[in-house]
Amino acid sequence: MINLELPAKLTNIQKMTGGMAKSMLRPISRKYDTLEHEPPKELDPIKNMMGQGGGGLGGLGAGGGSGSKESKEKKDDGVKNAGNMLGVVAVENMCWGDCGLMLAMPGQGLGNAAIAAVATESQLERFGGKWAAMAITEPGTGSDSANISTTATLDGDEWVLNGEKIFVTDGGRCEVVVVWASLDKSKGKAAIKSFVVEKGAPGMEVVRLEKKMGIRASDTAAITFTDCRIPKDNILGSPEIDTKKGFGGVMQTFDNTRPVVAAMALGVGRAALDMTKELLKQEGIEPSYSKKTFNASALEAEIYRMEADLEAARLLTLKAAWMADNRQPNSKEASICKAKAGRVGNYVTLRCVELCGTLGYSHDTLLEKFARDSKILDIFEGTQQIQQLIVARQTLGLSSKELR
């Protein structure tokens, strides 16, 4: 049974990452928001501590997920608080410092989670320590991941990839890219597989870095694949097309990453609320917590409601991560926490800008930046509408064909 109190080892991680966020990320947050695509040199000590990739701080590649090889093969039936729980705890704290800078750290790539979810043992040895980006979205394919048009064709001992990917987080700085491609478009989503492409592979080109509203410290790339050849064993998992399960393997990636993206939204929302409370305190306005909501001032009541919503989202996120660590299917819970945290995080940051007036809207504080950063956390890894659709399908027991 889930225990909502964090164990000592995770409390220590919480303190460590909270300290790093406060001392290393927050002081340079505005600088790299302005510089955008400039690599943050101040984070080199963290890079050296983590090594090149591998999710050393408990990020997006830290946990195997409910469907991963790691989780399936564990023999110990005891309750676990493993990589997924560690990931959400660490990421929430790091995003309190700066979400874009957290994503700019090696090992935090979305591709690391895909590798953890479906890679074979030999692939884990080859790619598990690399900084991996994820390439899913295409110019004509957004939330409907099953509509992938990038193709992968087997030619002797190599796969040949052709297609274009956009909005690839860390696509310009990573070491490898996990690319979603179809083996046979006539077989639909079952033929979609994920492939590991090493940066610099012939035929792979980073064509541009996007200029964005938020998370500017993290580069977001557009990448083309033109007769890009990769080794035959760079396909993650099995190359067999299973019309009953095929797409489920690659979709397990989202069961890993959605709780972590929810944790990002929580971190940004908490940062905005903490700063707002501090600014209000300087003006002599401080919630007393001695009154019930309907007896408190409008400002106090609003703060209470935002704190309650953030805490509710945090508990949902911890549950989804805990289920993954304990080998329980968590697709519905991963979507629930992502939907809740994404919506709440965006609301809290925007409301904090309103409550602080000119200070919230100006560059004098980071509140306007938190508001800009928060919006993408409600969009990527599946929009609010997609999460609600997934939850509805799971609750009603309907397939994607039956409920669209």
Describe the secondary structure blueprint for this structure.
Layout: H1 8-25, H2 29-35, H3 44-50, H4 69-73, H5 83-97, H6 99-103, H7 110-118, H8 121-127, E1 132-135, E2 151-155, E3 158-169, E4 176-182, E5 192-198, E6 204-209, E7 220-231, H9 246-282, H10 298-325, H11 331-355, H12 357-361, H13 367-377, H14 384-396
Parallel strand pairs: 1-4
Antiparallel strand pairs: 2-3, 3-7, 4-5, 6-7
- CATH homologous superfamily title of the largest domain: Butyryl-CoA Dehydrogenase, subunit A, domain 3
Under CATH at level 1, the class of the largest domain stands as Mainly Alpha
Helix and strand run:
HHHHHHHHEEEEEEEHHHHHH
| Spatial strand order of the main sheet | 2-3-7-6
Unreliable spans: 51-56, 65-75
Percent in strands: 5-15%
The count of strands amounts to: 7
Distance between the termini: 34 Å
Q: On the 0-100 scale, what is the average pLDDT?
A: 88
Tell me roughly what share of residues is in helical segments: 40-55%
